[in-house]
Amino acid sequence: MKNSLTKSRRLAFAYARTAAELSEEKERTWFNIWNVASLLVSSAGITVLSLLLGLGMFELRLFFDYFTNPLFFLLNWIPVLLLQAFLYGLTRRHWIAFLITGVIVLGASAGSFYKLRFREEPLLFSDFFILGAALDVAGEFDLTPNTRLILTAVALPCGTLILFFFAKGRPALRTRLLLCLGSAVAAGLLWVTIYSDDDFYTNVAVNTNHIRAKLWNEQIFVSKGSVYPFLHSITYAIESPPEGYSEEETAEMLAAYPESEIPDDRRVHLLVFQLESFCDYTQFGIQGLQPGFYDYYHELEAESYTGDLIVDIIGGGTINTERCFLTGTTRLFTYSAPADSYVRLLREHGYTALSNHTHYGSFYSRTGVNAYLGFESFRCSNNYYEKLIEGIPDHWMTDAVLFPCVLDEFHEHASQGETVFSFTVTTQGHGGYLAVPYEGPEVFWSAEGCTEDALTEVNTYFSKIADTQVQLAAMIDSLRYDPEPVAVLIYGDHQPRLYCCDEFYALAGLDFSAEKTDSMVDSYTTRYLIWVNEAARELLGSDLVGEGPTVSPTFLMDVVFEQLGWRGNAFMQLEREARSQISVINNNGFYITSSSGITDTLTDEEAALLRKLEYAQFYLRSTYTAKKNANGDA
Questions:
Q1: Which helix (H) or strand (E) holds 308?
Q2: For the chain, N or C: smaller number of CB within 10 Å?
Q3: What is the rounded CA–CA span in Å between residue 498 and residue 457?
Q4: Read out DSSP for 524-552?
Q5: What's 289's DSSP letter?
Q6: CB 413 within 8 A of CB 354
C-alpha cells in the first residue's frame, strides 16, 4: 500500500491542475517543468508528423534533412508551438490546444500530401480560395491513405488522450495572459522579420541536398518543410502595391499611350485553343520517339506564325497559363470581383466573348472568374458538355467532340453578324494516362529497359497528342475557306504530368535540371502558333507565316495583336515596349532578355521596365471596380 501511494505521489505533478494543489516545492517545480515539456513535446510531435506528410511522394531522405540542419525544423516548429501555446492559454486545457492545433496543421499537411501526389504541387495559402474546386474533383483520385497518413490518424487521438490523462495543468490568469499575448506578439514579430521575408526564404532557408532541380517550385517548397513554406505562401496571395508605386504617376504613364481602336478593315474573328498538356517533344531530340505522328502539327506550323511559349508550371496549374494570357499579368492573381482583362478589351472593341471548358465550372472557380474577366458565356461540363460525354471511353472529354461544338457556337454567333472572340481550354491531354491506357498498335515511344508502366503511360499520353493533331487538322480544314475571316491561336498550357517522369526523362536522354540552364528552361517550354484562313489573309494582306518571338503567357495576346495589326490599349502598348527587352518573365526565377538571353538578373533599364509593368498591372487591378462603378458599368 505504501509503495502504491509513493508511486502515486511521484506522479502528482502530472495529475495536478494547479501548483497550489501540491504541498512540496519539488513537486511544484516538476509541475511547471512537466507542463512546459508537454507543450514543447506535443507541438514538436505535430511538427514531425506535418513534415512527414508534407513530403508528399518525395523521397524519405529529404525528411532527415530537416533535422540535419536544425533551422528547418525550427522554422516549421515555432509556428505550431505558438499556435498551441495561444490555444492553451485560451482554453486552459493541454489536450484541447493539442487537438485543435493538430487538426489545423495536420489537415493542411494532408491536403498538401494529396496535392503533391496528384498534381506535384504543394498546398498554398491561395488554394483555400478555390477549396470548392479541389473538393469537386477529389473523388476522381485514389485517396487511399498510405503509412504516413495512417500514422497521423492514429497519433493525433492517442496524443490527445495522453494529454487528457497526464497533463492536467491549468495555468493561472497571469500565465494565460502571458501565453496568449506573448504568442501573438511573437508571431507578429516573426512574420515581419522572417516568415514573410522573401530574401530569407530565397537565400537563407536553402536546402538543396536532395532536390532534383533547384528552380522547380514544388521541390523548393518541400525542401523547406511544410508549415514554413505554406506560411510564406501567404505573401503570394496578399496583394500590396509594388515598391515605389504611385497611383497618380501610373495613371499619367498610361495616359501617355494613344488610345486605339481595332480597324474595321482588320477585324477578324479570334478563336483560341489552349491545349491541355500539349508539347512538341520533337524539339528536344528525345531518344526513342517516333516523330512521324507530329507531322500534322508541323504541317500546321509551316503555314502559321509560330514560337516557343515559356510557361511557369509543369504538369499542373493550367490556370497560371490561362489567366496570365487572358489578363497580361505576370503572375496568377485571385479574382473575386470584375477585373480588367483582354477579354474586356476585345468586348470594348465590339467582340462577343465566349468561353468553353469540358470540366466542371467550379474547378479553379472558372464559372465565377470567367464572368469577372468579362466572358459573356461559359459552357462547361455542368451546363452543356456533360450530356455529350456519356459513352465516351475516356477519362477526359475528347477533342473530336469538343472542337465541332466550339465551331458550331462560333458559326451561330457569326451568322448573326457578331465578331467572335472564343476561348477554349481542352481536357483531352489531361493526366491520369494509366486510367484508360492506350491499346492501339502504334508505338510512339519506346526505350530499352523501360518498365511496362512507363511504356503504357508515355504511349497513352502521345496517343492523345496524336489524336489532338488529327482533330486540329480537321478543324483548320473546315475553316480554311470559310467566308468569315478567322484567326486561330493554338498553344499548350504546360508539359504533361507523368508518374514515370524521372524514368522517361532518363531513358529519353532529357536532363531538365538547374545545373543545365537551357535544359531546365526546356522543361517549361511549349509551342504556340497563329493561323489565319484565306478570308483573313485577304483582309489583312498577310499570310502570317514565320518564326515568332519566345514569350511567356503574359505577352502572348500582345503577339497576336501585333501580328493582326492591332495596336491595343495603353497597357498592351506598355507590354510591347517591355517585351522588346524582356520577352519572358518566369516566376521560377529567370528571364529571357534581348541583352543576356536566359538570365536571373536584369539590367537597370530592364528592371525599370518591369517595375513600370508591375505598376500598371496593380493600377488596373486596384482601380477597375471603382471606375466601372462610377460609370455605372458591371
A1: strand 305-310
A2: N
A3: 7
A4: TEEEEEEEE-HHHHHHHT----EE---B-
A5: B
A6: yes
Cα four-point dihedral sign 117, 118, 121, 123: negative
| List of residues 6+ apart from 312 with CB closer than 8 A | 320, 321, 324, 331, 332, 524, 552, 553, 586, 587, 588
Mean of pLDDT values over 441-456: 92
Torsion angle, alpha carbons of 491, 497, 503, 505, to 10: 20
pLDDT for 187-226, tens place per residue?
A: 999 999 999 998 898 888 887 665 544 434 567 778 889 9
User: Buried b / exposed e across 462-501, counting CB within 10 Å, b at 16+?
Assistant: bbbbbbbbebbebbbeebeebebbbbbbbbbbbbbbbbbb
Sheet harboring 590-593: ordered strands across? 582-586, 590-593, 597-599
Judging by DSSP bridges, how do beta strands 590-593 and 419-425 pair with one another? unpaired
Strands 582-586 and 377-379: unpaired
Nearest CA among 569, 627, 576, 493 for reference residue 257: 569
Q: Is the pLDDT of residue 390 over 80?
A: no
Confidence of residue 516 (pLDDT cuts 50, 70, 90): low
Reading the block at residue 387, the C-alpha cell is 450530356
Q: CA-to-CA distance for 433 and 593, rounded, in angstroms?
A: 36
How far apart (Å, rounded) are the C-alpha atoms in residues 230 and 293? 42
3-state secondary structure of 351: strand
Return d(Cα 511, Cα 519) in angstroms, integer: 6
The pTM is what? 0.72
Average pLDDT estimate for 47-52: 95
The C-alpha cell at 254 is: 498610361
Whole-number pLDDT of residue 215: 37
Q: Is the Cβ–Cβ distance between 135 and 124 less than 8 Å?
A: no
**Per-residue pLDDT tens digits for 336-378:** 678 899 999 999 999 999 999 988 786 777 887 898 899 999 9
Across-strand partners of 526? Answer: 309
The ranges of the chain annotated as CATH 3.40.720.10 are 267-340+354-406+419-568
CB 106 within 8 A of CB 50: yes
Summarize pLDDT for 102-146 with one digit per residue, the tens.
999 999 999 888 877 765 567 778 777 655 555 555 555 567 788
In order of 28, 36, 325, 570, the CA distances from 261 in angstroms are 81, 69, 20, 11
Alpha carbons 447 and 290: distance in angstroms, whole number: 11
List, as one string, the DSSP characters of 490-514. Answer: EEE-S----TTHHHHHHHHT----T
Fold of 267-340+354-406+419-568: Alkaline Phosphatase, subunit A (3.40.720)
**Neighbour-count burial of 50, counting CB atoms closer than 10 A to its CB (0-12 exposed, 13-18 middle, 19+ buried):** buried
